[in-house]
Amino acid sequence: MSSDDAQSPSPPRGRPFGPGHRGRAGRRKGARNDKTIVEMIALEKHRVKLNGRMRNLTTAELALIKLQRIAMSGDVRAARRLDRLRERIEASRSDDAGVAVFPERPSEEEWIRRAEIDNQFKQAPRGEETT
Fold first, then answer.
1. How far is it, in rounded angstroms, from Cα 54 to Cα 6?
2. Helix, strand or coil for residue 23?
3. 93-102 pLDDT, tens per residue?
4. Boundaries of every domain in the chain
Protein backbone atom coordinates (compact mmCIF):
# COMPACT_ATOMS: atom_id res chain seq x y z
CA MET A 1 0.00 0.00 0.00
CA SER A 2 1.49 3.32 -1.01
CA SER A 3 1.35 6.55 0.98
CA ASP A 4 -1.04 8.07 -1.61
CA ASP A 5 -3.71 5.42 -0.89
CA ALA A 6 -3.66 6.11 2.84
CA GLN A 7 -4.20 9.89 2.48
CA SER A 8 -7.55 10.07 0.69
CA PRO A 9 -9.72 7.51 -1.04
CA SER A 10 -10.41 8.27 -4.69
CA PRO A 11 -13.96 8.28 -6.04
CA PRO A 12 -15.04 5.20 -7.96
CA ARG A 13 -14.27 5.29 -11.64
CA GLY A 14 -16.41 4.23 -14.52
CA ARG A 15 -20.05 3.41 -13.83
CA PRO A 16 -20.52 3.11 -10.07
CA PHE A 17 -24.14 1.96 -10.36
CA GLY A 18 -23.56 -0.51 -13.18
CA PRO A 19 -25.49 -0.80 -16.41
CA GLY A 20 -29.25 -0.29 -16.18
CA HIS A 21 -29.11 1.45 -12.78
CA ARG A 22 -29.91 5.13 -12.73
CA GLY A 23 -28.53 5.96 -9.31
CA ARG A 24 -29.44 9.43 -8.13
CA ALA A 25 -31.75 10.51 -10.91
CA GLY A 26 -33.26 13.47 -9.04
CA ARG A 27 -36.86 14.54 -9.23
CA ARG A 28 -39.21 12.48 -11.40
CA LYS A 29 -40.17 13.99 -14.73
CA GLY A 30 -43.41 15.93 -14.34
CA ALA A 31 -43.21 16.08 -10.53
CA ARG A 32 -44.40 19.37 -9.02
CA ASN A 33 -42.93 21.29 -6.13
CA ASP A 34 -44.98 22.72 -3.24
CA LYS A 35 -45.23 26.21 -4.75
CA THR A 36 -46.71 24.85 -7.98
CA ILE A 37 -49.25 22.74 -6.11
CA VAL A 38 -50.34 25.70 -3.94
CA GLU A 39 -50.70 27.90 -7.05
CA MET A 40 -52.85 25.27 -8.76
CA ILE A 41 -55.15 25.02 -5.74
CA ALA A 42 -55.35 28.81 -5.26
CA LEU A 43 -56.25 29.41 -8.92
CA GLU A 44 -58.80 26.59 -9.13
CA LYS A 45 -62.23 27.95 -10.13
CA HIS A 46 -65.44 27.19 -8.23
CA ARG A 47 -69.01 28.07 -9.16
CA VAL A 48 -70.71 29.54 -6.08
CA LYS A 49 -73.80 31.59 -5.27
CA LEU A 50 -72.76 34.92 -3.76
CA ASN A 51 -75.26 37.66 -2.89
CA GLY A 52 -77.94 35.87 -4.91
CA ARG A 53 -75.79 35.58 -8.07
CA MET A 54 -73.88 32.62 -9.44
CA ARG A 55 -70.19 33.51 -9.85
CA ASN A 56 -66.97 31.76 -10.80
CA LEU A 57 -64.37 32.47 -8.11
CA THR A 58 -60.94 31.07 -7.40
CA THR A 59 -60.10 29.26 -4.18
CA ALA A 60 -57.96 32.27 -3.15
CA GLU A 61 -60.89 34.68 -3.68
CA LEU A 62 -63.20 32.45 -1.66
CA ALA A 63 -60.65 32.28 1.17
CA LEU A 64 -60.36 36.09 1.22
CA ILE A 65 -64.14 36.52 1.26
CA LYS A 66 -64.38 34.10 4.19
CA LEU A 67 -61.55 35.90 6.02
CA GLN A 68 -63.31 39.23 5.48
CA ARG A 69 -66.60 37.88 6.87
CA ILE A 70 -64.81 36.55 9.95
CA ALA A 71 -63.11 39.94 10.41
CA MET A 72 -66.45 41.73 9.98
CA SER A 73 -67.96 39.59 12.73
CA GLY A 74 -65.49 41.20 15.14
CA ASP A 75 -62.50 38.85 15.01
CA VAL A 76 -59.49 41.14 15.47
CA ARG A 77 -56.96 38.51 14.39
CA ALA A 78 -58.75 38.06 11.07
CA ALA A 79 -58.83 41.84 10.56
CA ARG A 80 -55.10 42.08 11.22
CA ARG A 81 -54.45 39.23 8.80
CA LEU A 82 -56.44 41.02 6.08
CA ASP A 83 -54.47 44.22 6.69
CA ARG A 84 -51.14 42.36 6.45
CA LEU A 85 -52.20 40.72 3.19
CA ARG A 86 -53.31 44.06 1.78
CA GLU A 87 -49.99 45.70 2.77
CA ARG A 88 -47.97 42.88 1.17
CA ILE A 89 -49.86 43.17 -2.08
CA GLU A 90 -49.62 46.96 -2.17
CA ALA A 91 -45.88 46.79 -1.45
CA SER A 92 -45.24 44.24 -4.19
CA ARG A 93 -47.23 46.05 -6.89
CA SER A 94 -45.43 47.36 -9.90
CA ASP A 95 -46.48 48.48 -13.38
CA ASP A 96 -46.26 45.01 -14.87
CA ALA A 97 -47.82 43.17 -11.92
CA GLY A 98 -51.27 41.63 -11.90
CA VAL A 99 -54.11 42.88 -9.76
CA ALA A 100 -55.39 41.17 -6.63
CA VAL A 101 -59.14 41.35 -6.14
CA PHE A 102 -60.39 41.84 -2.59
CA PRO A 103 -63.97 42.01 -1.44
CA GLU A 104 -65.13 45.57 -0.87
CA ARG A 105 -63.80 47.06 2.36
CA PRO A 106 -66.53 48.55 4.59
CA SER A 107 -66.36 52.10 5.85
CA GLU A 108 -65.14 52.66 9.40
CA GLU A 109 -68.67 53.55 10.55
CA GLU A 110 -70.08 50.34 9.04
CA TRP A 111 -67.31 48.28 10.67
CA ILE A 112 -68.02 49.83 14.09
CA ARG A 113 -71.81 49.39 13.69
CA ARG A 114 -71.40 45.67 12.88
CA ALA A 115 -68.94 45.15 15.74
CA GLU A 116 -71.34 46.81 18.21
CA ILE A 117 -74.21 44.59 17.06
CA ASP A 118 -72.08 41.47 17.45
CA ASN A 119 -70.75 42.55 20.85
CA GLN A 120 -74.27 42.94 22.27
CA PHE A 121 -74.61 39.18 22.43
CA LYS A 122 -71.14 38.26 23.60
CA GLN A 123 -70.38 37.46 27.22
CA ALA A 124 -67.31 38.56 29.14
CA PRO A 125 -64.87 35.79 30.14
CA ARG A 126 -65.39 34.38 33.62
CA GLY A 127 -63.73 36.34 36.36
CA GLU A 128 -63.77 39.63 34.44
CA GLU A 129 -66.27 42.36 35.05
CA THR A 130 -67.62 44.58 32.32
CA THR A 131 -67.87 48.32 32.78
1. 76
2. coil
3. 655 656 667 6
4. 32-97
